Amino acid sequence: MHYPKAKQTLMSLAVATACAALIAPAQAQESDQAGAAPAPSSSGDVTTVVVTGLRASLGSSMNLKRNADGIVDGIVAADIGKFPDTNLAESLQRISGVSIDRSIGEGSKVTVRGVGPDFNLVLLNGRQMPTSNLGDLNGRAFDFANLASEAISQIQVYKTGRAETPTGGIGATLNVMTARPLDRPGLLASIGAKAVHDTSHNNLPGDVKRGSSTTPEISGIYSNTFDDNRIGVALSASYQERNLGFNQAAVSNGWRGPFRGDENNWGTIPQPGTDGADRITNRPKPTDVYSVPQNLNYNMNGVQRQRTNGQLTLQWAPVKQLTTTLDYTYSENKIQTRRQDLSAWFNFGPSSSTWSNGPVAAPLVYTELIPAGNSDIAMGGADFATRTQNKSLGFNAAWKTDGLKLELDVHKSTAESKADSPFGSSNVLGTASFSRGDTTADFRQDFPVLSIKGADFAAAPQQVTGSVFQNGYMKGEVDQAQFRGSLKVLEASNLNFGLASTEVKNRSAFSTQQRDTWGGATKPSDYPASMFHQESLRQYFDQIEGSGNPALFNQFYTFNFADLRAQAAKASGLPDLYLPKNTFDTDQRTTEKSKSAYVQFGTDWDTAIPMHTNVGLRYETTDVVSTALVPAATTISWVSANEFPVAFGPATFTTLNGKYHHVLPSVDWDADIRSDMKLRASYGETIGRPRYDQIQGGTTLNTLARVFGGTGSQGNPQLKPVKSKNLDLSLEWYYGPQSFASLGLFHKDLENYAGQSKITATPFNLHTPVGGALWNEAVSQGACGNDLVCIRNYIFRNHPTAPGVTRGADDPSGNATGTIVGQPGDPVLPFEITTFSNQKKDKIKGAELNVQHMFGNSGFGISANYTWVDSGLKYDNYKIGEQFALVGLSNSANLVGIYEDKNWTIRAAYNWRDKFLSSTFDGSGPNPNYTEAYGQLDLSVGYAFSEKLSVQFEAINLTNEIQRVHGRAETMALFVTQSGPRYMLGARYKF
């Protein structure tokens, strides 16, 4: 179909050219064509396309792309209350260039064109949304798992810069739009119910399983207009329960290292000519980089989730020209988690090992030799809950005449996450049997296999060891006022303009109650044997290659967390240490106040090839105030072989400030080179604000140090945002009513990335026993070498009353227990402090190929896309130390097949994402995390008995895929996760 442009007179061309010269590069006009992609706006003045089926929905999404200024993709609901997927992130991954991160088996955050979740801005009806996530206390990423899909009418993904768009999205700005009653006059209502069966819930130990594997979902939406369509009311609500599980094999505290092949210190393998060197096969070469595992952990997790969403929208158009909208949106996501685990820690004593070839070498089999058979077999548990609430109250007034549109939009929105359990937002209660002998980790297959010799649970019963109870809190607030206008200039031009004021507040706080008695907090006799329940491990990982290895240590014990916690509190006589604190140790608060203004001029050109141009300019200034409550560290205590907890005193607030401003131009051009073919070019500059942990003031030390030092973090409020100069080209062929093919090329020139690096510092001048007088005396005797347990035994047995030394009873293995506190005159412990500065820049380039084809009137159709992304910001696995690399960069592809007729709607969707760097730090320090390539097949089948009643069956992760994350080498497993398919059967009735 050809979309004719308005005819330009010579006078209008002259005026348009003059206006463009005055404005400088600017942005896209709002199109008046049917199905055009609107600017992010809550006014509802966009032409709404009412669709009644999946094919029509795909056609509407295609027209949104076709008629937009710049590069825009989107998803349009097939009908009111009928979004294509039950999860918005799962829908977004069908769009080229969009990849998702998964959490508890469903999509949560999005990466667009290789730019990670923190640098993609999410709007709700054109309004900037706050974020809160206890899993990432200091991030900006929006978690789509908090929003149900039933009330969503469409999602627009703006991939190019727009002057009228709020800043913050480098990869994309995503506008989530809800239904407005005056956009769809008359009565529209439906109610739906589903039964959800999550098979992952069935594969869990009894002590972590919650409820039934089949849970309910119910949703409803009501929209109606009155008084000759001048008054509108819309109400939507949904409630969803889900019980699920996931099981994970992990080197969850990362890998010790990396080392060079010729190093010989604590944690490295013996060098040639030293004791134990003969037990190493295919030793890493002197120039090779290698790491050794710190621990191997198996954890089984039972999760319950309850998600409640609701929205009320009231509209009133007292006169034809004025429409007012008042809306309130609420969402609550409650998650309860129980976990049991089995693990073994390596203390880097005598070992034997077999290695892969370098230059990055990884252990294929690593064995620690423990002839005494008295190390710990750790079996921990957790029981915690969190709640996230989102609230948004907004008002919009839109005035529209033939040549002028004015709009005022204000809203106050909050997102708050906190603990929803008396045991805190995260916790762990450690237990152990001190009967572990030689311990082996086999990494030759996907599943890392732990083998243990000499385990004797009868002779060394389980007992409670250390514990950690944490309370986390995060709250984001956005107060925003936006004024927008559009003036028609002559026959075919528009001048758009706007002002905005935005205040964003972020508060993240946490406290930790940690008891570092990992050598044993109480006695085994304090716990009846009936409190521990024997389990076998292998069954929980039966989908992962290697779990059938007969060498797997297959026996472990679980427990009821609440019962064992109460017993430990009673046996220890220290009940307060087995509950979270009521106050926060660290409280960090940041306020960003931004003011912005924009102008943009768009015009159609009646030339031989019809063209449209849009130029825009946005100015924005931001003030940053960061206040942090930071606890002051007081002492370092040596409590077990490699456990050096930091003690803290009273905390105080400190305040730091920052400021920046930007001028952001944008230019869009498109030409109808044929009636069915469009060529586009766009240039725009965008910014992505730093994460909150990057700009929060105060030095925060982690609570647990090691023999070689401690760790901490420190923010920098003067950081500038990342700035991106974006160039896009696109060729689009719309060869059928619902069929098209397109090729897009993009290039992003990024600067001011905050480099995450570590500096060595000595905050608070904390003295450590390591290298002190007592330590040196023990080493000088010649019997201990670097054996930490031996050194502790010497000090306790020869200097039990020395300053800072508090001796306890010997443990079941005959080793002394107690604490050794650093004294004046002892060395000061070094800390590696993570900090940030604007120092990194590079480029991202890529291509997007899209095809959507409907096979005539057969009912069959196919949609496919592939995205290729590349950047110089890659991680060098051979390099030791701090590195900056682009997280989330990956190729991706989608293949969707559909069939639709009067009664049936069938869709099979396969999504694939290539391997990508998911983090530059693991649990031990600066090391890469690579999420391996992952593909998932989903299926939905719907049948309509009539226009009013329909049923639907859905299957998620139909082929039961696993997810795997590795380190510098593929055999360096970090996380291997098994979950399971999820099935849903539902019905919907339209009134």
UniProtKB/TrEMBL annotation:
Residue stretches in coiled coil: none
Primary localization class, coarse: membrane
Domain TonB-dependent receptor plug: 66-169
Organism domain of life: Bacteria
PROSITE patterns registered for this protein in UniProt: PROKAR_LIPOPROTEIN
Signal peptide, first to last residue: 1-28
Location in or out of the cell: Cell outer membrane
Keywords: Cell outer membrane, Membrane, Receptor, Signal, TonB box
Domain TonB-dependent receptor-like beta-barrel, first and last residues per copy: 433-958
InterPro entries to which the protein is assigned, alphabetical: Beta-barrel_TonB, Beta-barrel_TonB_sf, Plug_dom, Plug_dom_sf, TonB_rcpt_bac
Cellular component, GO, one term: cell outer membrane
Pfam families named in the record: Plug, TonB_dep_Rec_b-barrel
Region of interest called Disordered, as start-end residue ranges on this chain: 264-288
Similarity comment text for this entry: Belongs to the TonB-dependent receptor family.
Protein name: TonB-dependent receptor
Organism placement in taxonomy: Bacteria, Pseudomonadati, Pseudomonadota, Betaproteobacteria, Burkholderiales
